Amino acid sequence: MNMHGQRVLVVGGGIGGLTAALALRQRGAEVTVLEQAEALREVGAGLQISPNGLRVIEALGLAGTLRAGSVQGRAVSLRDYRRGAEVLRLDLNRLPPDQAYLFVHRADLIALLADAVRDAGVEVRLSQRVVRVGQEGRVVLDTDESLTADLVIGADGLHSAARIALNGGDSPFFTGQVAWRAIVPNVTGHPPEARVHMGPGRHLVSYPLRDGGAVNLVAVEEREGWVAEGWAHRDHPDNLRAAFAGFGGDVPALLAQVHDPGLWGLFRHPVARVWQGGRLALLGDAAHPTLPFLAQGANMALEDAWALAACLDADGIEAGLPRYQALRRDRVARVIAVANGNAWKYHLRNPLVRGAAHLGLGVLGRVAPGRMLGQFDWLYGYDVTRAVR
């Protein structure tokens, strides 16, 4: 129990930061979370929590509550954009009995974690804007207040002050893609599956949330003009509808329900070269921003948080931090590489190439359905709670 009584500052009250705070508090650390927002809340976004991420929720003792408010995914369905015809179906019912795939409202997961950390005795300080982080375990706020701890964890997202402290600045580049997101009423009877509607230069993902009465939409379009990185930008729904005007199936009815979509530019960041040093560590997007083409951003943050807490508890800060980076970096780099490679597969423009690719996927899905799902065993079958042991 190397973390018993150790003082920890977690910068960022998102999924990764709250998970790390809870995991460390359960191991006896004295934890304070510094969140720049006025409240721990998230609105208007869905998540896919795959079995590897759910392992962490289970280990924290929160899986029952999360399952009760989520939709269990039964399939991932790849569809052609014109009429919505199914190209390939990955049957999630084929997953082992101890694995589950959940569609979760991000606000529900944040609320669950926030309640758990407060119940566990974690101090949560809101409206705390961190402007500088030091490897010696020091955090400076925009009020000039300086805080110190035995360990600082940078879970502060894309524009991380902690990442800069360890790696300096980097140069993310625009991928030539933008993404809209929205939650709409389930007017189509959308079943409990994630549908990827694939078209030339764009795709749209849809899946139900909560009691199935709502549908989460993420729509990605290739374009030369870029918008700023981040999730706070809004767009007119007519722009989204125009971009996907050629899509059929359920897509037009769902897009007709969109009123105030978010819009953000997709930028590719390198995986941080250094994740830890002195009394400072990174996790989640602060270490490895992930494009949304494998639905693993939240899951990697969950894995990071558990691995960091477990390594620190087993080996202490000095030895635990290098072990954490060694355990996580190659896996995360593989996930990001696969996510980066998925975009072009969804966006095939040449109709002959697209037709041949879709035909091949359909044949493989019918002939070897288990093999198609099995290609994700390395991802979904991974259990970070065992890997650290």
Judged by helices, strands and strand pairing, the structural class is alpha/beta
**Order of strands, widest sheet:** 6-5-14-15-16-13-17
Instruction: Report, as a whole number of angstroms, the end-to-end distance.
Output: 14 Å
**Residue share in helix:** 25-40%
Number of strands: 19
Oligomer: single chain
Beta-strand content:
25-35%
The geometry reads as globular
Count of runs of 4 or more consecutive helical residues: 12
What value does the Rg take, in angstroms?
A: 21 Å
Average of the residue pLDDT scores: 92
- Major β-sheet profile: 7 strands, mixed
Contiguous runs where pLDDT drops below 50 for at least 5 residues: none
Please describe the topology of this protein.
Elements lengths: L6 E5 L3 H11 L4 E5 L11 E4 L1 H9 L3 H6 L2 E2 L2 E6 L5 E6 L10 E4 H15 L2 E3 L4 E5 L3 E4 L4 E3 L2 E4 L6 H7 L5 E13 L7 E7 L2 E8 L4 E9 L14 H7 L7 H5 L6 E7 L7 E2 L2 E3 L14 H50 L4 H17 L1 H6 L2 H4 L3 H4 L2
Parallel strand pairs: 1-2, 1-12, 2-8, 5-14, 12-19
Antiparallel strand pairs: 3-7, 4-7, 5-6, 9-10, 10-11, 13-16, 13-17, 14-15, 15-16, 18-19
Helix pairs in contact: 1-4, 1-8, 2-8
